[in-house]
Amino acid sequence: MTPASVLTPTVYLGTGGYSDTDLLGTLYPTGTKKTDFLREYAKHYGAVEINSTFYAPIGQKAFAGMVNKAYVQTDSQLKFAVKLHQDFTHARKGSAEHAQAFLTALTPLIEADCLALLLLQFPHGFDRTREHRLYLVNLVSWFKDYPLAIEFRHNAWHTPQVVDSFIKQGLIWCSVDYPKVNGLPPSRLIFTQRTGYLRMHGNNLNWWDAMSATDRHDYRYSEIEMNDWAQAIANQRQHFDTLYIFFQNTVNAHAYYNIAMLREALGKFEFEVL
Questions:
Q1: Domains of the chain from N-terminus onward
Q2: CB atoms closer than 10 angstroms to residue 16
Q3: Which of 252, 195, 203 lies closest to 226 in space, CA to CA?
Q4: I want to staple 147 with a disulfide (CB 3.0 to 4.6 A). Which of 75, 115, 117, 159 is the partner?
Q5: First-residue to last-residue Cα distance in the chain
Q6: What is the pTM of this model?
Q7: Contact by Cβ (8 Å): 63, 112
Q8: What is the pLDDT of residues 142-181, one digit of tens each?
Q9: Which of 231, 222, 209 is closest to 249 using CA atoms?
Q10: DSSP code per residue over 238-262
Q11: What is the crossing angle of helices 96-105 and 130-142, to 10°?
């Protein structure tokens, strides 16, 4: 086996979405127009998780605009992870035709070779029933030509059997740092492919009582927490070539400070951090 010191895995850092105005004055210079956010973002981070696609369809024109701002205007190598629409995961009324329409809209990202992967995020209520397993089989088949990361919030999916099935099917297990509260899965870093995916939700203990996603994510990790995550990632460096890490705590610019902390902590382990 190649010594770990010879391997140089790549870690991409970024945020869930790029349009939070709380990032003004830190990531984005004060006075930056929202239409210029992505251009500024691409100067600092190697990847972005597009979440708006979860709430409403986005057309080819919008994605072409993103490619233009990140690649033509900024000359970056920004990678895009795109969250699938809630019809696929929450309403569960997706279809093969619906999936094809979603992929067609992504054509500008695909042609620019900047689509990192697709993200399926299932809600807490999506438990591991036979009906849900069969639905998942169909859903995965509709996107089989693209890297697919899947996040499960129900504990029933967090078993060695499911992890093994991901390895065999070529699916990417979405690791998540959740608050340590009842009803949420434990925070674990799991690799089922040579590409890994990690979402950082913070450790707000009022997760279930929070009135909004903003409230849930109003949490800033400490340097100790970021150092611990860097060590956990380093401990598994032989299991991945590429790891995408997206901080969801953009409220109050927490993500900006936490990415800087994690970037510094990872630097001690000789990763390529983008």
A1: 10-273 (3.20.20.410)
A2: 23
A3: 203
A4: 117
A5: 26
A6: 0.95
A7: no
A8: 999 999 999 999 999 999 999 999 999 999 999 999 999 9
A9: 222
A10: GG-SEEEEEE---GGGHHHHHHHHH
A11: 40
